[in-house]
Structure prediction request, 513 residues.
Amino acid sequence: MSELLPCGACGRHVKADETACPFCGAALSPPRPCAGGCSGLAAARLARAALVAAGAALLGAAACDSSPSVVPPYGVPPHFDAGTDSPQDGGAPTDGSPDAND
Amino acid sequence: MIEGRPRSLPIAPRARPALRHLPLADEARDVDRVWRPTYAVWELTLKCDLACAHCGSRAGRTRPDELDTAECLDLVAQMAALGVVEVSVIGGEAYLRDDWLTIVRAIHDAGMRCSMTTGGRGITAELARAGAEAGLHSTSVSIDGNEATHDRLRGVAGAHRSALAAAAHLKAAGIGLGVNTQINRLSMPELPEVLETLIALGARAWQIQLTVAMGRAADDPDLLLQPEDLLELFPLLAKLKARCDEARVALWPGNNVGYFGPYESILRAGMQRGHMASCGAGCTTLGIEANGAIKGCPSLHTVPWTGGNIRDASLQDIWERSAPLRYMRDRTVDDLWGYCRTCYYADVCRAGCTWTGFSLFGKPGNNPLCHHRALEMRKQGKRERLVQVEAPPGAPFDHGMFEIVVEEISS
Prediction:
C-alpha cells in the first residue's frame, strides 16, 4: 500500500515517492529521517503538512505513529471520553466502518 | 419511472429469519488472526419507534428470532475474549429491548466501553440516568436538520424536539454526548444550523455520513446526493470543521465521506494517518444483527455479507473462518472495477466504503460518491450521474440497482 503525504502547496495527498505534486505541479521535498525514529516518509509529511493551513498541528502530532487512522462508526468517536472536552484518537489498527442509515 | 414495489407500505416489513449453518473454512490463516475487532456495532433489536426515510434496515418490527438475554450475555463474553474495546448498541432502538440495561451493564463489566446511537424519541431523564448507572459511556443522538427537515426524514412529528430533549437528558446524566447527521439533499443545506444546534446542546463530537442507497433510502433516490453534489459539500464541510475546532467539537467524517480531495487533511486531521484507509469491515469492525448474524460491518447487507450465526459457531470461528468477514482482509486493486480500478489512490482507498458501492451496484469495488473522482471528472468537463434502474424489493437491508451515466458538462 502506498504511503501518502499531503502536498505542502495544495494539501492533496500524494504518494511519498513523488517529486512533484500530480495535482498542482509543486515540487515536493525528498523524504528525510525523523529524530523521533519514525520513517523518513512520515517526517516528510511533517514538513509538508506544516504548510497546510488547517489541521497541520494534529497531523504533525500523529506523524510518528505508524498506526492507521480510526474512523468511528455510528457517531461515537472511539475512545470518546465523556469527562473531557474532546475525543482522543485511539489505537485501533485501521479505519472503521461506515454508518448504517440507522 | 422505475417499475417496482409501491413506495408507500409496508414501512416496516417483517425481517426474514437468520441465515443459518453457513460454511466456514477449515482453518484460520495467519492474517485472520492478525486482524481483531476492536469496535463492535450491535443491533440489539430491529424494533424502532421512528420511521426514518433513509433507514437502511427498514427498522420498526422486532425480528422473529432475536437473541434472548442469555445468548446476548454469552456474546458479550465472546466479544471481550476476542479483544473488542468498544461496543455500540443500536437498533432499531436499543432501549426498546426490555433487557438493554442488563446488556449494557454486562458490556461495561466485561471491561469494554459501551456507547449507543439513538434517535432519542423514548429517552427520558429517568432512562438516561438508568443508562449511566448501568455503565453507558457515551451516546450519539441523530439530528438531521432543522425541525421540519428532521421530522420529515425521521418520519415522526416531534422527532426533532424529542431528540433535543434526549440529548439534554443524556448530558445531564453524565453520559458523553455526540451527534450524528445524515447528509442528503434535504439535510445538506442545513448542516450549519445542525452544527449550531449541537454546539448549543453541549455535544463534543459530530459524526457525519452520506445517506446510502439502502433500504428505505433506495425507495426515494431523489433524496440521495449525486456525485456532483460533493463539489459543493466538501468546501462546506471544511468551513464547518473550522467552526467545530472553534467550539471544541470533534468532527468525525464517517467512512463514506471522502476521498482524498483537497480537504482530506483538514477533515481527517485528528486521525492518525491524516487520511482514510479503505474499509475496516472484518478488519477492526464487527457488525451484529439482533438474531446473531455476524458481519464485518453493521451497515453491510445481510446477504451476502453475513459470515455466520452465533447460534451455530463461536464468534472467533466466524471472525477468522468466514468468507464475508475475510473479504476486506484480502481485497486488492484487482478486485476493483470502473473508475476506482484506475484511480491514483486505488491501492490505499480500495473503493472506500464497501457498503456504499455495494448498495448502488450489487457488487463491491467501485464508488462514484467520491470527491476526488468528482473533481477529476470536472477537470475533464464531465460529471457522473447515478440513475436507479431497479427498485429495492422492500426487505430489511435491501438495495436497488443503479447505473452511472457520464455526461458532458454544458458550459
User: Anything to note?
Assistant: Chain B touches chain A through 89 residues (CB under 8 Å). The longest helix of chain B spans residues 230-247.
